[in-house]
């Protein structure tokens, strides 16, 4: 079974002060567009391919759509709560990796058995 990789879009986009706050939707789309290569190639040292990549978006980024290799899941409220829900529902019984630097979220998903890594894991290809 593929490793489930859940990316906290708001946290990853917000990890670099590149003006993302002026266009949150566009910043989330740019991040999304860098992720398909990871689905095919994996995350070095973290997860071997193929990966099931899920990008969780919230707020102004809710309109971002899925693309081949990346399923976009809009959070109706808190992105953190949606990520925890996905880990509990889809990550149970399989390798699950959450990409975030949010300490509180990291604790919540690790309690459910997920592994965690920081935003740099998915910011290496192009500008995200």
How are helices and strands ordered from N to C? EHHHEEHEHE
Give the terminus-to-terminus CA distance: 27 Å
User: Looking across the biggest beta sheet, what order are the strands in?
Assistant: 3-2-1-4-5
What's the mean pLDDT score?
90
* Major pleated sheet: 5 strands, parallel
What is the rounded Rg? 13 Å
Query: In terms of structural class, how would the helical and strand content be classed?
Result: alpha/beta
Which shape, going by the Cα principal axes?
globular
Q: Please state roughly what percent of the residues sit in beta strands, choosing from under 5%, 5-15%, 15-25%, 25-35%, 35-45% or over 45%.
A: 15-25%
Helix content: 25-40%
Number of helices: 5
Number of strands: 5
What does this structure look like?
- It contains 5 helices and 5 strands.
- The model has no long low-confidence stretch (mean pLDDT 90).
- It has 128 residues and is an alpha/beta fold.
- 33% of the residues lie in helices and 20% in strands.
- The longest helix is centred in the middle third of the chain and has 12 residues, at 79-90.
- A 5-stranded parallel β-sheet has the order 3-2-1-4-5.
Fold topology:
Blueprint: E1 3-8, H1 9-13, H2 24-34, H3 36-41, E2 51-57, E3 70-74, H4 79-90, E4 96-99, H5 103-110, E5 115-117
Parallel strand pairs: 1-2, 1-4, 2-3, 4-5
């Amino acid at each position: 079974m593929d490793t489930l990789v859940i990316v906290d879009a708001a946290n990853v986009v917000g990890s670099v002060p590149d003006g993302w706050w002026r266009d949150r939707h566009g910043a989330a789309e740019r991040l999304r567009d860098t992720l398909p290569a990871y689905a095919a190639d994996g995350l070095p040292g973290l997860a071997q391919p193929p990966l099931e990549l899920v990008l969780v978006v919230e707020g102004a980024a809710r309109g971002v759509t899925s693309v081949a290799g990346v399923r976009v899941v809009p959070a109706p409220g808190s992105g953190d709560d949606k990520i925890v829900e996905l880990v509990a529902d889809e990550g149970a019984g399989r390798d699950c990796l959450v990409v975030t630097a949010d300490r509180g979220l990291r604790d919540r998903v690790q309690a459910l058995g997920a592994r965690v890594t920081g935003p740099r894991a998915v910011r290496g290809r192009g500008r995200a």
